[in-house]
Amino acid sequence: ITIIIFVALALYNVAELNFIIFATFKRRGGLYFWSFFISTWGIAFYSIGFLVKGTRISDVMAFYVTFIVVGWCSMVTGQSVVLYSRLHLVLRNKKQLRAVLVMIIVDAIILHCPIVVMVYGSNSANPEPFLIPYSITEKVQVTVFFIQELIISGLYIFQTVKFLRPEGNIRGKGARSVMTHLIWVNVIIVVLDITILGLEYSGLYDIQTAYKGLVYSIKLKAEFSILNRLVELTSSSKVTSNHNSS
Fold first, then answer.
1. Which entry of 9, 43, 81, 132 is 20 to 30 Å from 96 by CA?
2. CB 33: neighbour CB atoms within 10 A?
3. Which of 94, 104, 84 lies closest to 144 in space, CA to CA?
């Protein structure tokens, strides 16, 4: 029942996120839009896959496992790309931006590929050879993706405070409000990631996998709210800067 509740809440959030996508995005293109869109639907595929597996709606292994792995890859890496797509607003160092992108790509390749193989193997007619390697690799990927999001969240907090500190003296409460909002959103994201990590290392695999879809849907909604505020503030900052220089 707990798993079904987590999946149902995740799918409800997906419905809300789709409404946000088609009601908010005026230009349906670019890295931010597509990463947000793919990550949202990744949550849907991932949650539906586990729902089918848990409720035995279908016994066709390839069907629900494909939903799970496609959804998982899109959801996890897609969300990191969402954050990366707006990082340039506060981080102007091209080498550091490139390093973040390389980190996301490398982590995706070295972690998604073996996990996909092991998920199919552990759900096959002969799962025994895959169970122990999958258990170990699962813990590794959860930890590495946690560290990856911790790095990106840390960069957002540090660079936003650095970027908006002089802006705060000009715009006052507006800039300080964005800084406070961003810090709290990133703290909540890290705490949610820690709960996933805790469930994984506690051996509560079924609950952790269902809960993960819900967590990623909450994180995506939170990230959307703060990234849009950051866009508005940095855009108004550029306009003010251009006006003052002219």
1. 43
2. 17
3. 104
Map residue 133 onto helix, strand or coil: helix
- Give the pLDDT score at 159: 82
Q: Which residues contact 199 (CB under 8 A, 6 or more apart)?
A: 207, 208, 211
Q: How far apart are CA 26 and CA 33, in angstroms?
A: 10
Task: List, in order, residues 6 or more apart from 34 with CB less than 8 Å away.
Answer: none
C-alpha to C-alpha distance for 238 and 176, rounded to whole angstroms: 17
Pair 57, 34: CB distance under 8 Å: no
pLDDT at 165 over 70: no
Q: What is the mean pLDDT of residues 214-226?
A: 87
Closest CA relative to residue 200, chosen from 130, 145, 121, 125: 145
- Angle at the Cα of 78 (from 105 to 99), degrees rounded to 5? 35
How does pLDDT run across 114-145, given as a tens digit for each residue? 999 999 998 888 888 888 898 899 999 999 99
Measuring CA to CA, which residue among 224, 203, 244 is closest to residue 85?
224
Contact of 228 with 21, CB cutoff 8 Å? no
Residues 72-84 pLDDT 10s: 999 999 999 998 9
Q: Is the pLDDT assigned to residue 170 strictly greater than 60?
A: no
Q: What is 177-193 written as a DSSP string?
A: HHHHHHHHHHHHHHHHH
The rounded radius of gyration (Å) of the Cα atoms in the chain is 19
